[in-house]
Amino acid sequence: MSVVLGERSGPVLRIVLNRPERLNAVSEELYTELLNQLQAAVLDSSVRCVVLTGAGRAFSAGADLKAHRTADRSQADRATYVALGQQVCERIQKLPVPVVAEVRGYALGAGAEMAVSADFLVMAEDAKMGFPEVALGTFVGGGVTHRLPRLVGLRKATDLLLLGERFTGAQAVQWGLAHQAPPEAELTAVTDRLVSRLSSLAPLSVRRMKAALARDSGLDDALQAEAKDLLAVMGTDDWAEGVAAFGEGREPEFLGR
Fold first, then answer.
1. Which phi and psi angles does 251 have, rounded to 5°?
2. Is 186 an active-site residue?
3. 10 CB-near residues (< 8 Å, 6+ apart)
4. 197 CB neighbour count, 10 Å cutoff
5. Structural domain boundaries in the chain
6. pTM, to two decimals
7. What confidence tier does 77 reach under pLDDT thresholds 50, 70, 90?
8. What is the CATH superfamily name and number for domain 4-199?
9. 146-150, 172-176, 215-219, 226-230 — which is least confidently predicted?
10. Does the structure show a pLDDT above 60 at 71?
11. CB under 8 Å to 195, separation ≥6 — which residues?
12. pLDDT exceeds 80 at position 187
């Protein structure tokens, strides 16, 4: 069976990391199949939202250290593994549709990097996340040294990345890192409600909003870029539909045109 499963339900693509016997530890094969699933979401304009989760009792326990201990891994093998991990997190962050990470159990190391790359993080309140890399003599990836300080502030990011202590979903909500942290029994239902809302939004506006939030620019550049985005969406059918629906007191039906 594939180590990454793609499950389509209407406008939602649910991507499941599928190595439950290894707590969904990442490997070159898993990264490659995950990239393929994410690319499918890019190519299919009917996909409005992606959910990333793990099979079994964990999101992902991170690197498969058992595999890394093997003596026959060359420097080229290591470089391939690192490049794939970076590509996965970059693809999650730059995907044109919202990505929701649904986390139960553990999200550690590379698993945490993928989870925080998502636009929305929904963690079970007792789920455990952490960045243990420095304590293990290795290093983080996935753009975490850039993204995490933007999410929780430099001081808290320093604590999390240098000390490597695990934290719960409830703590992640307090810090503004997670969107919600329900009891595990309610995790899927909470994710589904969020995904339903995200899938109903105007896709062209969502695409531009994601790109705008990812930009590192000053105020002057942001003002110019926002004006350009606003003028662009004002020329779409979705903009006309949104205005009409508001005037008629109904929910809009956006078609991405």
1. -80, 135
2. no
3. 199
4. 11
5. 4-199, 203-248
6. 0.94
7. confident
8. 2-enoyl-CoA Hydratase; Chain A, domain 1 (3.90.226.10)
9. 215-219
10. no
11. 12, 49, 51, 100
12. yes
Percent of the chain's residues with pLDDT above 90: 92
CB atoms within 10 A of CB 113: 27
Among residues 102, 133, 241, 251, the one annotated as catalytic is: 133
Cα dihedral value 211, 212, 214, 219, nearest 10? 160
Token pair of 98 as six digits: 């919202």
> Model confidence at 67, in pLDDT bands (50, 70, 90)?
low
- Smallest CA-to-CA distance from 196 within 16, 6, 11, 53 is with 11
Which entry of 113, 226, 248, 251 is annotated as an active-site residue?
Answer: 113
125 an active-site residue? Answer: no
CB-count exposure of residue 14 (10 Å: 0-12, 13-18, 19+): buried
Q: What's the rounded Cα separation, in Å, for the pair 114 and 108?
A: 10
Three-state DSSP state, 56? coil
